[in-house]
Amino acid sequence: MRIVSLLPSATEILFGLGAGAEVVGVTFECDYPEQARTRRIVSTSALPEGLTASQIDAAVTARLAAGEDLYHLQGHALAEIDPDLVVTQDLCAVCAVDVSVVTEALDYLGCRAEVLTLDPHTLDQVFASILALGRATGREDGAADLVEGLRTRVSDVQRAVAARPPVPVMVLEWTDPPFAPGHWVPDMVEAAGGRSVLGSAGEKSYRTTWAHVAAAGPAIVVAAPCGYDLPASVDLAEQLVRAGHVPAGLPVWAVDANASFARPGPRLVDGIEALAALLHPQLALPLDGRLARQVA
Hints:
- By secondary structure, the protein is of the alpha/beta class.
- The protein folds into two domains: 140 residues, Rossmann fold; 130 residues, Rossmann fold, CATH 3.40.50.1980.
- It has eleven helices and 14 strands.
- The strands form three sheets. A six-stranded mixed sheet has the order 4-3-2-1-5-6, with helices on both faces. It has a five-stranded mixed sheet with strand order 10-7-12-13-14, with helices on both faces. A three-stranded antiparallel sheet has the order 8-9-11.
- It is globular and about 60 Å long.
């Protein structure tokens, strides 16, 4: 099977299921595991490099309003690869190439690849998407084992924090302007022994204001800007503190959003474990310093 993955999360899942050798095409964002970087890139960003968070938000808003794509799908690369399976999404126009664009491209090129659309909105649906990829690649047993292990780790965290009162937390999916979390992130917060003060599980993230953030009464702020690794998240979180957006004395953490928050794959459970450790320091849970760092 020749597989094109247009989602970093799907690429990670496919390699985790042992189908990495069959992945022949990826996006410019597919960077985990390291072997994914050696695959042919078939999707690139339409945005210029070097933009600030506010400039990215403005550019995305303008392009969406104009009906313009945020990604360039390399049709010639798809034609040359001639895939059997293309994995894409119908979740978020900002996150990756939309399934409608993929279908139109394949029809135009005369490719007969199967298109698998992943559309998880909750943590349970993320696990279901792993099972769906297992079925599509003939690796049902491996997918079931992977999901079972992930669910066991989540249950272990839930048991560890069960006796503690939920910590009100504001997870920022974007920092300038601030975005309240959605999709699976509130599920992650709840599993880690927290309470998401803004945003609802299964719903879209949404633009908010710093006044609303303060009024929601978080006990901690976690910067998890979509598309950013830990060093970049630290920079953005420090900017928030310097600008006075976060009330003085309120703990502020930055996390590796790419690794364990923004991409709906197995490493979301790493994010849950990290959240539990920083929300409940009294429990002395292990915290991977590669995933989270306190900035205030």
